[in-house]
Design a protein that fits this description.
Layout (H helix, E strand, L loop, with lengths): L7 H29 L17 E8 L6 H16 L6 E10 L5 E11 L14 H17 L1 H6 L9 H11 L4 E8 L17 H7 L7 E11 L4 H16 L5 E9 L1
Parallel strand pairs: 1-2, 1-4, 4-5, 5-6
Antiparallel strand pairs: 2-3
């Protein structure tokens, strides 16, 4: 039988083909591994069914009315917050609102709940359908958040401000290992246990009445609405009470004024 002799160029060509096949196999294996490890997502929130890693929770206190310019400022804050939500991080937004009258109503509503699916700039076309990523990001995460402006423009003036109770609920609802809590409010608690308009309690009294579960690493960012009707000593006492309330429970908290209104 006659042996087939290969030239050096032929051998080089076969080697290149072999290397190419090996690379394709490695890429295919990596893609299969990534795909197999991809979490199953909830179709409504795009959150992993196996649980969340990080949650960013926002409380917008609309228990007293704002001006149109104030709403624009809050929208800016929300835009800044949502842009910092990490991929697969969960963003929840609650509002306190209501109406006064013969039958006063106070409502605490969850007005946004979705996970950041990642935007197109973060997408690797080798492993993901970037068009779908873009569609999910805009349709489920970006667009609904932008539409909240209409909700925030509605007059809000309730008889009660259950801030401490609502904060406790938001912390308890968190399923992740880390929680970043943002609160937009004048922080004038007015509910069952405390009425700050009459007396600002000690922070230790607030902790005793509304202790927070310690199942996650929590940080708090407070956006303080200053109202002209409240004297500055009262506002300072309120901010100090809330700061102590969180710090006494080992939770870092910072507060900064966002606007002054009636």
């Amino acid at each position: 039988m006659r042996q087939l002799k290969l030239s050096k160029s032929d051998l080089r060509g076969f080697k290149l083909i072999g290397v190419g096949i090996a690379v394709l196999v490695l890429i295919g294996g990596a893609a299969a591994f990534v795909h197999s490890g991809k979490p199953v997502l909830d179709e409504h929130t795009l959150c992993p069914m196996t649980g969340e890693k990080t949650r960013v929770a926002v409380l917008v206190d609309k228990s007293d009315k704002w001006a149109r310019g104030d709403v624009a400022r809050v929208q800016d804050i929300l835009q800044s917050i949502y842009r910092d939500v990490p991929t697969q991080g969960r963003l929840t937004i609650y509002s306190i609102t209501g109406k006064r009258g013969k039958i006063p109503v106070t409502e605490v509503n969850l007005i946004f709940d979705a996970c950041n699916p990642g935007n197109e700039s973060e997408c690797n076309a080798l492993y993901k359908n970037c068009r779908k990523v873009k569609r999910d990001y805009k349709g489920t995460f970006q667009a609904p958040l932008e539409q909240l402006g209409a909700t925030l423009m509605l007059p809000g003036e309730s008889s009660y401000s259950p801030l401490l109770e609502t904060v406790g609920t938001m912390v308890k609802d968190n399923k992740g290992k880390a929680l970043k809590l943002h609160i937009v409010s004048d922080f004038m608690e007015n509910h069952t246990n405390f009425r700050f308009y009459d007396l600002v309690p000690l922070d230790s009294e607030m902790v005793a009445a509304y202790p927070l579960p310690k199942k996650a690493e929590i940080t708090v960012e407070g956006y303080f609405i200053q109202r002209r009707m409240h004297p500055m000593p009262l506002q300072n006492a309120v901010q100090a009470a809330w700061t102590g309330y969180f710090q006494k429970q080992g939770i870092p908290a910072t507060f900064s004024p966002v606007f002054t209104t009636d």
